[in-house]
Design goal:
The structure holds two protein chains of two kinds. Chain A is α/β, with parallel strands linked by helices. Chain A contains seven helices and eleven strands. Chain A has two domains: 4-91 and 181-214, D-Maltodextrin-Binding Protein, domain 2, CATH 3.40.190; 93-179, Periplasmic binding protein-like II (D-Maltodextrin-Binding Protein, domain 2, 3-Layer(aba) Sandwich), CATH 3.40.190.10. Chain A is 30% helix and 28% strand. In chain A, a hairpin with a 4-residue loop joins strand 2 (38-41) and strand 3 (46-51). The longest helix of chain A is centred in the C-terminal third of the chain and has 20 residues, at 195-214. Chain A is elongated and about 60 Å long. Chain B has helices spanning 19-38, 52-56, 61-65, 85-96, 138-154, 167-174, 181-192, 196-206, 210-217, 227-231, 237-256, 317-328, 341-348, 362-372; strands at 42-43, 49-51, 69-71, 77-80, 103-112, 124-133, 160-166, 223-224, 262-265, 278-284, 292-296, 310-316, 334-336, 353-355, 376-378, 384-386. In chain B, helix 1 packs antiparallel against helix 5 (138-154). Chain B is of the alpha+beta class. Chain B starts with 18 loop residues before the first helix and ends with a strand. In chain B, the strands form three sheets. A nine-stranded mixed beta sheet of chain B has the order 1-5-6-12-11-10-7-9-8. In chain B, 40% of the residues lie in helices and 20% in strands. Classes of the chains: A alpha/beta, B alpha+beta.
Chain lengths: 215, 388
């Protein structure tokens, strides 16, 4: 029997995801060794793939992984066709539009030809398109909040946790695009080809969550 | 940037096929055509391009967006066919509507869609499928579903499973809801993605009567065996009829001995502007997306002048070829530098693990693994190296 392939997003979601899986009885100890990208739990017929957050939705859409645990921010950006039956109670953050304080209020919505730096070009485009704004999206891979200070962009679209990074870079939040948290996603083929395993996994995770709510 | 000359390149999403690939593709097409013919279906060959107006007639917004369009010399808009169902509906609606029913047609041919190429998604790809026209019965639904499964078997794929739903159930359940288009779309999308938290949020915002709310809220969980049909809440007679139809189709699949290959899924609602009854998708091991897609569309042919019910499906031939490829692989999953418990465990877990017995140097082992097409190297110190 081929193992159930579970893709886990690296970064801030990895530790709580490992905790969740360990509470379900999986052996994912070696995930803490950051060099391991593939971990087999032979006894439980599972194989864990550790991937960059933005890659997890793609792994799952293509069926390279049967299920995945990833932030809704990366999920929305991926625009993939997957099932998303559960949200998990960690990885909370918000995706926002931010800019220099002079953009506060509605004025920025009147400006033409704005430049927006982001790691989320698809989400950003959808947001601005829906408001009839034609913006130039500049895709950057890190330190998005630096872009307005160095004149690369007028606005940024990025995740905020506490808002400290924004403040430190002299930026203010202008609008919230959506709230995000960790989610369980499922490949559409696996959902029917491995219907019993997937159902069992969803019910197990849902069960721990219910218990956590009660506790 | 100086652009490369294009005369020796290919555009995205098309492919040259020769040698084995060409032979395998033609063999699959012959096999599937023979299967369809034995079930009483005759071939139909619509043109490669037509007026955009015909092809766009009942296509959903997405399919319309994806059509290749161009002009003839008189400035009329033409389009390459993006599926074969719409051209066949035109042919039947305008030319064959007075024949003895039902009509059974099969087709094998290229379709063209301007979309981002992904695995198995190309801009020119081959569909093989059938249309069973002029029969609105559960018998016709079951025949289409059983033929799709039989065709996969004929092409050497036994490990399939199909999802089966009924578009009429959600349509009936949502009928009369005072929602604008955007809200209705958001609701259908949350249901289709089985996104229970989002669905709950939307239902809270909409203020619905309790029965309807229960019916919609439970949809993401309504997948599995026949017991799903007992759990489905029906808010009106049409919803009850939609559930009853699924029961009838399942009962008929027993005659084909195919009922065990079906997972019911009442949340599926792709192509709502098109499907009016059952809808199904077929999946095979090793391929992460559907290789068959089909359903009942009773309103489509009426657009072309004849009110005829129809059910049909299309098989993606390139995806079938991918499935074969996934099965044909004899490359090792892992090349390990030495024996040990992980090697034994991985083998016990069904993976192909080859261990280096030549004590190659690291660079030489990496090169060997690449040539063998291995996916990973397991080094002596416990490192796992993923290979592309």
């Amino acid at each position: 029997m081929t193992p159930l392939k579970i893709a886990l997003a690296k970064g801030r979601l990895l530790n709580p995801s490992i905790q969740l899986l360990e509470s379900l009885g999986y052996d994912v100890r070696s995930a803490k060794d950051s060099r391991r990208l593939v971990i087999d739990d032979v006894a439980r017929g599972a194989r864990f793939l550790i991937a960059k957050p933005m890659d997890v939705p793609i792994y799952v859409e293509y069926g390279a992984a049967d299920v995945g645990i990833v932030g809704q921010d990366a999920l929305r950006e991926g625009g993939v066709q997957v099932y998303e039956p559960l949200v998990l109670d960690y990885g909370h953050c918000r995706l926002v539009v931010a800019g220099k304080p002079e953009f506060r209020g509605a004025e920025w919505k009147m400006l033409a030809g704005l430049r927006v730096a982001t790691k989320y070009p698809r989400v950003a485009k959808k947001y601005f398109d829906a408001r009839g704004l034609s913006v130039e999206t500049i895709e950057v891979y890190g330190s998005v909040e630096l872009a307005p200070a160095v004149g690369l962009a007028d606005l940024i679209v990025d995740v905020v946790d506490t808002g400290r990074t924004l403040r430190e870079n002299g930026l203010v939040e202008l609008d919230e695009i959506f709230k995000s948290q960790a989610a369980l996603i499922v490949n559409r083929a696996a959902h029917t080809l491995r219907v019993n395993e997937i159902r069992a996994l969803i019910e197990k995770i849902d069960g721990t969550r219910m218990n956590a709510d009660k506790g | 940037m100086i652009s490369q000359p294009l005369d020796k390149q290919l555009p995205h999403g098309v492919a040259d096929l020769f040698f084995n690939d060409a032979a395998r593709k033609r063999a699959l097409e012959r096999t599937v055509a023979e299967t369809f013919a034995r079930w009483g279906y005759s071939e139909i060959i619509p043109p490669m391009f037509e007026y955009y107006e015909s092809l766009a007639a009942e296509a959903g917004p997405q399919l319309r967006e994806e059509m290749y369009r161009f002009f003839d010399r008189d400035g009329r808009t033409l389009a390459l066919r993006a599926d074969l169902t719409i051209p066949i509906a035109r042919i039947v609606g305008t030319k064959l509507f007075d024949r003895a029913m039902p009509l059974r047609f099969f087709y094998v041919g290229s379709v063209f869609r301007y979309e981002e190429p992904q695995a198995g998604v190309r801009r020119e790809f081959t569909q093989a499928g059938i249309e069973l026209i002029g029969a609105a019965t559960a018998d016709a639904d079951a025949e289409a579903l059983a033929l799709a499964m039989t065709a996969l078997r004929a092409m050497g794929l036994d490990d399939f499973r199909f999802t089966l739903g009924n578009a009429a159930y959600l349509q009936a359940t949502m009928r009369g809801l005072a929602l604008d288009d955007a809200d209705a779309l958001a609701l259908r999308e949350a249901i289709r993605r089985k996104n229970t938290p989002e669905l709950t949020r939307l239902l809270d915002a909409f203020d619905l009567d309790p029965a309807r709310r229960r019916a919609l809220a439970q949809l993401p969980a309504l997948w599995g065996g026949a017991e799903v049909l007992d759990r489905a809440e029906c808010v009106n007679d049409d919803a009850r009829a939609a559930i009853e139809r699924l029961r009838q189709v399942l009962a008929r699949l027993v005659h084909f001995d195919l009922q065990a290959f079906v997972t019911l899924d009442l949340a599926e609602n792709r192509g709502m502007e098109y499907y009016t009854g059952i809808l199904f998708e077929g999946f095979v091991q090793g391929i992460g997306f559907a290789v068959v897609s089909g359903g009942r569309y009773d309103k489509l042919i009426a657009h072309f002048g004849a009110d005829l019910p129809a059910v049909g499906f299309a098989i993606g031939i390139e995806r079938i070829m991918m499935a074969h490829q996934a099965r044909a692989s004899i490359a090792p999953d892992v090349i390990a530098q030495e024996y040990g418990a992980p090697v034994a465990a991985a083998r016990a877990n069904g993976r192909i693990v080859e261990v280096d017995v030549l004590n190659r140097a690291d660079a030489a082992l990496r090169e060997y693994a690449r040539i063998r097409g291995a996916r990973e190297i397991w080094w002596r110190d416990g490192r796992v190296e993923a290979l592309l």
